């Protein structure tokens, strides 16, 4: 018998062990059926054998394999149970040959997602994924529950993590943004990578009309890559919606696989506005985030989708600012005075020189870089993990250095590129001081008491105030040079351990 998540708990708030849905083995088997069918039919087609008896044998073989997978999945189903223990943590017990018991501490909860793969949607079922802070085995997935049951269990997990009673009910949500599929498709087609690959395909078509040989193969490859990229992201972000609730911002999207997740504002460590040069006429930006404790792989060791790090796939800049103000309250980039890079930085970054700037206020630190793909990165002072000053051989010959503000792993990189060495050291020291002061009084976790979204000014993402002077000097941190690395400074003044490498996209672009 399968108990519902709302079953009366035993003493101490604990619940009895429960199984996932009885149809789970067949959902796993049906997901494997198309792959098995292709694996059997394609070799027969290549051999030119498509008689009636061959097709019958192929279907029987596929059915037997599906039944075998369903049988193994059934054995796993019988040993998979989940419950809340007396300490309020979530427990999962699984394993056929080797028993595996996992304990997820809800006090360290990072997020709870409801995912509906295609075959699970057809039978009204969903998987519940729970993520907690910590290295290694910090992510667990329950496959599969009835969709309503998954939503109820998700609400219970969030309520228990917040210290509420388990029967507090699902927090109400208020829709904020719906990304139109047409805007999503156009934005993906207008990205620089997509346009470049399509232009390369056209060039190869012209070359193929004059010559023969390898040009045809290259044309197929270059034409296929942008199509795959656009199709994959379109299906992933289809009908992307953002809603506000006391739990945080809730996002939901997907064409074939629907993913619903909650982003607690207190877990957002950094935000980045990304604007391709072909988006500027429409005023579109993409918003990406770094989330504390977020695992970069799923249960199978595969990279997670971009859903977990994209707050908005595409939106007008005023709309994006409003949404960001829900996770970083009282942040208005238009009020931050940005300081441009020194003139000698032109010799190091002659393309993006005019787009290199840095600024801050009493809440956040902001950097800008990139000409053809403009990136504006924002990190709250209280979310600063460490600061670094780096200097390569070329920068050293020009008397330049770059100042980095480190945050948890994610797509957002906060770096003030190519500043004067003394200025970079001063920026690092002052940011370290601001971070320590901000940690003593950080109101972002009480986000529902804040004012929420800012105004809807139509000003462009690049329209910052003109640069101003530097703040007063402070003791400079060490500079990391090639062959002579220096330990970065953390918020408490101690070495912060190994620093993440500079990303590839810091090249002159």
Describe, in plain words, how this protein is organized in 3D.
There is one protein chain. The chain has helices spanning 24-46, 52-79, 118-122, 147-161, 181-189, 192-210, 214-237, 317-327, 393-398, 421-439, and strands at residues 81-84, 90-94, 100-104, 109-116, 125-132, 139-146, 174-178, 241-245, 248-253, 258-263, 268-276, 284-291, 310-316, 338-340, 357-360, 364-369, 373-380, 386-391, 400-406, 414-420, 480-481, 489-490. The protein contains ten helices and 22 strands. A hairpin with a 5-residue loop joins strand 1 and strand 2. With 509 residues, the protein is of the alpha+beta class. The longest helix has 28 residues, at 52-79. It is 31% helix and 25% strand. The N and C termini lie far apart (60 Å). Among the domains are: 180-237; 265-494, no CATH class. Helix 6 packs antiparallel against helix 7 (214-237).
| Approximate helicity band | 25-40%
Class by SSE composition: alpha+beta
List unreliable stretches of 5+ residues: 1-12, 297-303, 445-449, 451-474, 482-509
Strands side by side in the biggest sheet: 6-5-4-10-9-8-7
Number of strands: 22
Estimate what percentage of residues fall within beta strands: 25-35%
Summarize the structure.
The chain is an alpha+beta fold and 509 residues long. The chain has ten helices and 22 strands.
Topology summary:
Elements lengths: L23 H23 L5 H28 L1 E4 L5 E5 L5 E5 L4 E8 L1 H5 L2 E8 L6 E8 H15 L12 E5 L2 H9 L2 H19 L3 H24 L3 E5 L2 E6 L4 E6 L4 E9 L7 E8 L18 E7 H11 L10 E3 L16 E4 L3 E6 L3 E8 L5 E6 L1 H6 L1 E7 L7 E7 H19 L40 E2 L7 E2 L19
Parallel strand pairs: 18-21
Antiparallel strand pairs: 1-2, 2-3, 4-5, 4-10, 5-6, 7-8, 8-9, 9-10, 11-12, 11-17, 12-13, 14-15, 15-16, 16-17, 18-19, 18-22, 19-20
Helix pairs in contact: 1-2, 5-7, 6-7
